[in-house]
Design a protein that fits this description.
This protein has 5 helices and 10 strands. It has helices at residues 2-23, 41-75, 91-120, 247-260, 263-278; strands spanning 127-134, 137-142, 147-151, 173-176, 181-187, 192-196, 201-205, 211-215, 221-226, 239-245. β6 and β7 form a beta hairpin. Bound molecules: copper (II) ion. Copper (II) ion is lined by residues 133, 192, 227, 229, 231, 235, 238.
Length: 282
């Protein structure tokens, strides 16, 4: 009987996990509580650390402090304590309330550093993407593929069915699933930040400096993020869209993109346009 019950619980947990994983796309939801669903190991680690370590500790401390406050309110109420107690020091309690928080912090620090280091150590990159923050859109480059393009938010009136408001862009970043994607992040004007919650990624985009981060998406789909550094009046309107596809789909996209977004052609057009403006060519 016990075994049957255990199996049933495991099945229920799996169904729940499946529902929560599939029902939530890589974007925020109305009335959402907690994180967006994880689509990379980094993010799963963050979610596990938060859900199974931080939340229980926070809940326990909050409940304990609430209990102490209520206990003190009842036990030391004025009606039952006509003469106030003069107690002011207790060495043992003072040692305990210094040591216990220290131990809690150390216990939290160990897994926290583990997650941090795993995010910081970039494995050999299989795809490299450079993200450049502009006021107010993102530019992308695939340095190994001679591809460059800009990515603008789609305005409300131009949204197609299924495209989320304030998150969909005209040109998405496309990456293959289960591949290490290194993202080089910089900015052209002011500070921006490239952030994608489902991948557990957030890095500042600093003019004149290149920051690095990485992710390995473990499922296909479209994932949305936003600029996460106050960068001016249209800060809220420079979303980030990453489309994770299969390797074959990625190769098809590359073929198309190498023609559509060919860097040398675009740079050449810029040069010609500059010359026309300066009057060298008519
Ligand atoms: Cu920005």
């Amino acid at each position: 009987m016990k075994m049957v019950y255990k199996n049933l619980m495991i099945k229920l947990a799996l169904v729940f996990l499946f529902i929560t994983q599939t029902a939530v796309a890589g974007q925020p939801k109305d009335w959402q509580l907690g994180f967006q669903s994880a689509a990379s190991k980094s993010m799963s680690d963050i979610v596990i650390f938060h859900d199974y370590m931080l939340l229980p500790i926070i809940t326990a401390i909050t409940a304990f402090v609430l209990f102490l406050v209520l206990y003190a309110c009842v036990k030391f109420r004025a009606s039952k304590n006509k003469v106030a107690s003069q107690t002011s020091h207790n060495t043992i309690i003072e040692i305990v309330w210094t040591l216990v928080p220290c131990l809690i912090l150390i216990a939290m620090a160990v897994p926290s550093f583990k997650v941090l280091y795993s995010q910081d150590k970039i494995p050999p990159a299989e795809v490299t993407v450079k993200a450049i923050g502009y006021q107010w859109y993102w530019g992308y480059e695939y340095p190994d593929e001679n591809i460059i393009f800009d990515s603008y938010m789609i305005e409300d009136e131009d949204l197609k069915p299924g495209q989320p408001r304030l998150l969909a862009v005209d040109n998405e970043v496309v990456v293959p699933v289960n591949k290490v994607v290194k993202v080089l992040i910089t900015a052209n004007d002011v500070l921006h930040a490239w952030a994608l919650p489902s991948f557990g990624v957030k890095r500042d985009a600093v003019p004149g400096r290149i920051n690095e981060t990485w992710f390995r998406a473990d499922r296909t789909g479209t994932f949305y993020g936003q600029c996460s550094e106050l960068c001016g009046i249209k800060h809220a309107f420079m979303p980030i869209t990453v489309k994770v596809v299969t390797q074959a789909e990625y190769e098809d996209w590359l073929k198309e993109a190498k023609v559509k977004f060919a860097k040398n052609v675009i740079e050449n057009n810029f040069k010609i346009a500059k010359k026309v403006i300066e009057g060298e060519i008519k």
